[in-house]
Amino acid sequence: MPDALPSSDDVLAAAARIAPHALVTPVxxxxxxxxxxxxxxxxxxxxxxxxxxxxxxxACNAVWALPDAVAACGVVTHSSGNHGGAxxxxxxxxxxxxxVVVPADAVRAKLAAIAAYGAVLHRCAPGIAAREAACAEIxxxxxxxxxxxxxxxxxxxxxxxxxxxxxxxxxxxxxxxxPVGGGGLAAxxxxxxxxxxxxCRLFLAEPRGAADTQASLACGERVTDLVPDTICDGLRGTLxxxxxxxxxxxxxxxxxxDDADTVAAMRLLWQRLKQVVEPSSAIALAAVLGQxxxxxxxxxxxxxxxxxxxxxxxxWRA
Length: 318
Known about the structure:
By secondary structure, the protein is an alpha/beta fold. The protein is about 45% helix and about 15% strand. The strands form 2 sheets. It has a 6-stranded mixed β-sheet, sandwiched between helices. Strands 5-4-3-6 form a 4-stranded parallel β-sheet, sandwiched between helices. Helix 3 crosses helix 8 and helix 13 (about 260-270) packs across helix 14 (about 280-290). The chain is globular. It starts with 7 loop residues before the first helix and ends in a 14-residue tail after the last strand.
């Protein structure tokens, strides 16, 4: 993948590139949740994006940036679900083939969506090493281009368009909270805030059982040997090198969240906002609720990153 870090100009280019294909998702509000949080919340509804997650933005940007000759060989990626579905759909918008390597423990609903969008599924053992090895084999055999789920500069730039839209509709914000796993959304958001809202602080909601981003930013180098243990399947990826560089440069702050608090926030979003979101999305609200004093009286943006839930395996069911 390219080594260069994306810039805020790349986010603007991505916004123009994906405009014919991606949705401008709504900004949602709830007086009841504002009262619980002690601040004014603006929820960016990326669970309502095509393919059910913000991931479509980055995947679409990467797919449509490919030269025709390269696109003819298709794309490949590894994903626990949302990026795979997003890339499969983005490839379909351009009539391209798509291969997705998925871990054996991926959520069934997400696997079904990937297949429904027309991608070829390749199973592998859990873990980043197994995913990357499988992707390399497929690249060699097919000539497909790797679209990394969170370390590709085009993907990062595409993810930054969600914050661009949020700021345009919600106006000035004191803080913006996004989930963090591999760091693509977080890094893209950092670029947007630096260019459009430098006074807005960026907070990263991270599962306590997968806290490699906090560890990495604290010690000044990427921590890659942590084994994730969290209900947030979309946040089990290791922070990528580009994300680490951009988040460190822009002073992002991490808030660790217990899975129990994430599930409670997920229930609140279903009950109060009437929105189906997954744990990896609800963690952003959980971070705000767990830090009431930090956000008291502020205008806080919250990116609801995805809504691909296995309805037969809800986390509050016995």
